Structures are given as structure tokens and as C-alpha cells.
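Reopening this ticket.

The earlier resolution said the output was attached, but the attachment link was broken on my side. Pasting everything inline this time so it's all in one place.
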Amino acid sequence: MSQLTQLKQRIAAVGNDAKTTAQGLAGFKSKFSTAVSQVSATLGGSSQNVDRDMVQALQAAEKQVDQAIAALQQAAQVANRYASSL
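Inline output:
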């Protein structure tokens, strides 16, 4: 097997792994968002700093999960496009 064929296969595998990981994170994000909403609703009226900090930390994590999903989807698309071009 030529080095070019091996490279193409490796890049395609990375793309597929990124896509699979993004899909798994999307499933996690759905459950996580539900939990964040429930915690926010429960603590929403609290005036204690520790409660607000908790909600803000969860919301920040939720946004970062979204960013990770988007980055993995982008990486998968680029890897698959590149592998196809070889």
C-alpha cells in the first residue's frame, strides 16, 4: 500500500472519529442542557453568589460543549474533503 493511500485512510479515519465524537457530544449536550435548565429554574431566584456562580459555570460549560461540537464537525468536514482530494 502506498504512503498516499495510507495517508488518505488515516485522514478519513480521523474525520470519521471527529464526526462520531461530535454526535456523541450532541447527545450529551441534550441531557446536559436539560439538567442546566432544571438547576437554573431551581436556583434562579436565589440571591446567593454561590448559586449564581453555579448557574453561570453550568451555562459556560454548555456553551463550550456547543463550541466543541462545532469544531469537531468542522474538522470532520475538512478531513473528509481533504481525504477525497488525495
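Reporter confirms the inline version is readable. Residues 4 and 86 are 7 Å apart (CA to CA). The helical segments are 3-43, 49-85.
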